[in-house]
Amino acid sequence: MRDETEAESADSRLADRLASLRAERGWSLDELSGLTGLSRSTLSRVERGELSPTAASLGRLCAAYGRTMSRLLTEIESEPPAHVPAGSQAVWYDASVGFTRRSVSPPHPGLRGEVVEGTLDPGAAISYDNPPVPGVEQHIWVREGTVEITVDGTAHTLETGDCLRFRLDGASRFHCPGPDRTRYVLMIVMP
Question: What is the Cα Rg of the chain in Å?
């Protein structure tokens, strides 16, 4: 677990990066609001570091900026090393839905793939309106529990050991029906 100072520092770096991405594109808060469906005031508070984004809102921002969530989160860290010890893997938790995301093998310059571990509490659900990068290839391997994954309108129920692979061009949803949590490995390959 990260200590409070480290979490605050990461939240501050994320806020700064989101503000700089908007500035790089010359977008106003109103324009970004139109692209993401998030309110202008929410976007302003996120960029000032007053509000930590939820998984869903961060997913919408990533889609607007054409980045995977992992790529955005590694952009706020220093250059990732080739060896990523378990203790230094970035972990992000969205308490509002019961979702933990560990960047096992973060994005790296010159590499197209990354590995993420996701954990959903029983009943937790995360929905993404659009992929961060259209056509991104994903492979999901369930390590514990059951997860219902909906990709481009088609629902799939995966249990321990099952794998689902696809190219993502539309909406997606991850849901843990319970009664136990689910833990899965997500392999992302950029187009």
Answer: 16
Cβ within 8 Å of residue 141, ≥6 positions away? 161, 162, 163, 184, 185, 187
70's CB contacts (< 8 A; 6+ apart) are: 103, 106, 107, 114, 116, 188
Determine the Cα angle at 68 with ends 168 and 127, to 5°: 60
**Beta pairing partners, 175:** 125, 148
Question: What pairs with residue 92 in β-bridges?
Answer: 101
User: What is the b/e burial string over 86-96, where b = at least 16 CB atoms within 10 angstroms of the residue's CB?
Assistant: eeebbebbbee
pTM score:
0.64
Residue pLDDT tens, the chain, 191 long: 444 555 567 788 899 999 989 988 999 999 999 999 999 999 999 999 999 898 899 999 999 999 888 888 877 765 556 788 999 888 999 999 999 999 999 877 667 889 999 999 999 999 999 888 889 999 999 999 999 999 989 999 999 999 999 999 999 999 999 999 999 999 999 88
Rounded distance between C-alpha atoms, residue 73 and residue 15, angstroms:
11
CA 129 to each of CA 42, 61, 151, 169: distance values in angstroms, whole numbers, following the listed order: 18, 11, 11, 10
- Tokens for 131, please give them: 């992929």
* Residues forming beta bridges with residue 158, ordered by sequence position: 147
